[in-house]
Design a protein that fits this description.
By secondary structure, the chain is α/β, with parallel strands linked by helices. It is 44% helix and 20% strand. The longest helix has 16 residues. The structure holds S-adenosylmethionine (SAM).
């Protein structure tokens, strides 16, 4: 059946507004039209009467179906943008978040004058932090770990697409044991959401993003920070830096943990939403 873009818009608004509200539905439609047709809102307005081709009708119908199941648009389209770069994402990796861009930006700003840094990213997921640092700093040597083989496949493909040389390693940080001080920087955005926080989370996240990337037990919420800080004690060079994204609910606890483990200049920083979300600490 012939359908114009004007009719397509009406259908999207009526089917998705109950789930997303009018404003977010319009934003989704803009994003999807940009992806498929490279159209802006103005293009849509000017082309209301254009017929949607049969293959595009099929494609838009499938996308609409996924969005109505609250699948995040980044997974539906298979891509997102992070720190100015396009990253492919699948449901094997967390969708990189804007607050993590703040962490990357902090590192790029603080470390701008250093050349050839040895950097380890723990829990790399899509490779967003590792690859952005590789591209944003002066010739760093970047290694990235993840316990998920499937995530590493996505990360490797992103590194290739973005021409960023990163050394990826399948490694469980909780069982890792490093001795030699080699790293100038260890960075991590580890799983940090307590299982009890699930109740406050949107179904977009809960039903679609990998639990492995998100959750820690309520009884040991700082498990990853403790272990990574222990690794840092052995394998960071003198004056090496730890950078973490943290659960905003545990800022002071994470600062205390790192200070008690002997780190100095432990700095807690807010993200652009005003939440205490990042920590830098220096090994003595
Ligand atoms: C919060 S996600 C962060 C992903 C990515 N770095 C980002 O910021 O978008 C945490 C990542 O840690 C990985 N992970 C979970 N447990 C791990 C473990 N024991 N050892 C290594 N990586 C782990 C998950 O697979 C996931 O990719």
């Amino acid at each position: 059946m012939d359908k114009t873009y004007g009719v397509l818009k009406q259908q999207w608004m009526s089917e998705l507004t109950p789930y997303y509200g009018a404003q977010e539905t319009e934003a989704l439609l803009r994003r999807v039209l940009d992806f498929r047709r490279s159209w802006s809102s103005l293009d849509l307005m000017l082309n209301q009467k254009e017929l949607v081709s049969p293959s595009d009708q099929k494609w838009f119908a499938l996308v609409l179906e996924d969005l109505a199941k609250l699948k995040p648009v980044q997974y539906v389209l298979g891509e997102t943008y992070f720190y100015g770069h396009r990253f492919a994402v699948t449901t094997d990796v967390l969708i990189p978040r804007p607050e993590t861009e703040d962490l990357v930006d902090w590192i790029v700003t603080q470390e701008a004058s250093c050349h050839g840094l040895q950097i380890l990213d723990i829990g790399t997921g899509s490779g967003s932090i590792a690859i952005s640092l590789k591209l944003g700093l002066s010739d760093p040597k970047v290694t990235a770990w993840d316990v998920s083989e499937a995530a590493l496949i996505v990360a490797k493909s992103n590194a290739k697409d973005l021409s960023a040389e990163v050394f990826f390693v399948l490694q469980n940080v909780l069982t890792a044991d490093l001795e030699d001080p080699v790293w100038d920087i260890i960075v991590s955005n580890p799983p940090y959401v307590c299982v009890s926080e699930q109740a406050e989370m949107r179904p977009h996240v809960l039903d679609h993003e990998p639990g492995l990337a998100l959750f820690v037990s309520d009884s040991d919420p700082l498990q990853f920070y403790q272990k990574i800080a222990e690794i840092g004690q052995k394998s960071l060079v003198a004056k090496g830096r730890l950078y973490f994204e943290i659960n905003a609910a545990f800022g002071p606890e994470t600062v205390t943990l790192l200070s008690e483990m002997g780190y100095r200049n432990v700095t807690l920083k807010n993200d652009t939403f005003g939440k205490p979300r990042m920590i830098c600490a220096v090994k003595v």
